[in-house]
TrEMBL record:
InterPro entries for the chain: Haem_Oase-like_multi-hlx
Keywords: Oxidoreductase
Protein name per its UniProtKB record: Iron-containing redox enzyme family protein
Pfam families in UniProt: Haem_oxygenas_2
Alphabetized GO MF terms: oxidoreductase activity
Keyword Phosphoprotein tagged: no
Oxidoreductase recorded as keyword: yes
Native source species: Micromonospora sonneratiae
Secretion signal span: none
SMART domains membership: Haem_oxygenase_2 (SM01236)
Length: 342
């Protein structure tokens, strides 16, 4: 991937420094986002802060496959990590405001609490819109947004594997094996999604559309990286995955129907069709075998599991609201709509 374009003073300063090797970043950058600089209200909402979200995405990218021409030693450069930590605290603060406090949860009852949380979610009907009436241009836009995640699908959640043991680890590995196609390249979900993009005439290189998507899309992806990179958030990462799997089957059925309505062949709809079947099974594994076992093994972290699931649902809701609001008035949901084919 090439380094994303900056969207504000901090991301611009970091983007300017990265090509020249690890150096101490100016202390003034830390002061820009230091806790207490902004009032604890919507003016400090990191979820819609373009500068902060592209900065975090840039930092997290160093832990995945890196950036073209950027020294890998930047991954753990102390001044960059310090700056990232300040940005992450702002991000976490916005997430807590969005979800509110976790309810009282008995460890044995966690799977039911997750099921109730998912059932109560009344997010915007994005999948119904894509299934029934979205245009080909709108479906392309949706796929461009989702490519930021699906072209590296499962990688963030895989970071939890070495931090777990026993039945929790086994359950997570069972889910991840399917995500990686059982070790067969052609069956990897990221490769199936690439086939969908190819039929839609989109650039299938990972990260090709990072500069085109807004903060709402970046936040969805940064959330997984935040949870995945911090051992203290391992419970939240599991909760996130559980919510993702528990809300996936029906929307993917609608996405497949929408793409077929638009003329998509089996090779283009296979990604969505695969998730209809796989995630119906993953839902039970994630809720009971993975999160249920984790709650029994680490009862003090049960609230973290709920928080991760709640964050997943909340940020997906904000993402869907962004797309539907823009489309409702005839606008593109992208920052650079000219790049979308007619």
């Amino acid at each position: 991937m090439t380094l994303p374009e900056p969207r504000g003073p901090v991301s611009a300063a970091v983007a300017a420094a990265l090509p020249y090797g690890p150096v101490d970043l100016p202390a003034s950058l830390v002061a820009h986002w230091r806790d207490g600089d902004c009032p604890d209200d919507v003016s400090d909402d990191a979820l819609c802060d373009e500068d902060l979200q592209i900065f975090l995405f840039t930092c997290y990218g160093l832990h995945y496959q890196g950036w073209a021409g950027i020294d890998d030693r930047w991954e753990w450069e102390p001044s960059l990590i310090e700056l990232r930590a300040v940005a992450e605290r702002r991000f976490e603060r916005s997430l807590w405001r969005l979800t509110g406090p976790a309810p009282s949860i008995v460890p044995a009852g966690l799977p039911r609490v997750l099921a109730d949380l998912v059932a109560a979610d009344d997010g915007p009907p994005l999948s119904a819109e894509l299934g029934r009436s979205a245009s080909l241009t709108q479906f392309r836009e949706f796929v461009m947004h989702r490519s930021i995640y699906h072209l590296r699908e499962a990688d963030s959640h895989t970071w939890a594997i070495p931090r777990l043991s026993g039945p929790v680890k086994a359950a997570l590995v069972e889910i991840q094996i399917d995500e990686y196609g059982g070790g067969q390249l052609a069956r990897m979900h990221s490769e199936l999604f690439r086939a969908t993009m190819d039929w839609l005439g989109l650039d299938t290189r990972y990260g090709a559309y990072v500069d085109d998507v807004p903060a709402a899309t970046l936040a969805v992806n940064n959330l997984m990286s935040l949870f995945g990179l911090h051992r203290r958030w391992r419970g939240a990462l599991l909760g996130h995955l559980a919510a993702f799997e528990m809300t996936s089957s029906l929307p993917n059925r609608r996405y497949a129907e929408g793409l077929r309505r638009l003329g998509g062949p089996p090779s283009a709809t296979r990604f969505f069709d695969e998730h209809v079947e796989a995630d119906a099974v993953h839902e039970q594994i994630a809720a009971y075998d993975m999160c249920g076992s984790f709650a029994v093994a680490e009862p003090d972290a049960v609230a973290d599991v709920w928080f991760g699931a709640a964050c997943c649902l909340a940020l997906d809701r904000l993402f869907a609201e962004h797309l539907l609001t823009r489309w409702a008035v005839g606008d593109s949901s992208l920052r650079v709509p000219a790049l979308v084919a007619p």
